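Open question from group meeting: does this chain pack into something compact, or does most of it stay loose? Before anyone orders reagents, we agreed to write out a predicted structure and look at it together. Recording both the input and the output here so the notebook holds the full record.
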Amino acid sequence: MVFIRDTELSLRAAVALVNTLPETNIEGVDGLVSATDLDDYLRGFPYTGAIVRDEEELAAVRRIRSRIRGLWEVDRVGAVPLVNAMLRDGHALPQLVIHDGYDWHIHATEASAPLATRMLVEAAMAFAEVIRTDQWDRVRRCAADDCDGVYVDYSKNGSKRYCDTGNCGNRMNVNAYRRRKSAETG
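Structure tokens returned:
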């Protein structure tokens, strides 16, 4: 295991949220345009606390995506001021909690804080752990030539090259196979 469970869950949630941006998928489609899209996201990545499910909340969640995406645009040192700003803006006050079958873990905002604030702070806390444990080399952008998706590499040897949003690994392997076959016969 590269990261502790709650850090990995928060990182996975951040990746999935960022990968709803149109520029991160090969179709160029925004994956978070409706309350239904947000509900689908929350089914896969549940958050405790208040969830209003109105247009204002959806707009706020949509706005934080680019801010979190910025973490994939910088190096480890460059990520520090971004993470600190996210924590500061979210009025983070880390506290240990236990609930819903989860063992002790950290919540850094009040359950009554807006959903987008809780999401931003949880992402920031997870990235603080990535920085603190010197694992920034696992924060990556997809190596597929037609994809700008993001991911965090959880593999033991750190060798993952493609995101999970558009079947990029399979697509690039098929392309490489076809190029090899074409070169052999041509």
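Observations to bring back to the group:
The longest strand covers residues 102-107.
Residues 100 and 109 are 17 Å apart (CA to CA).
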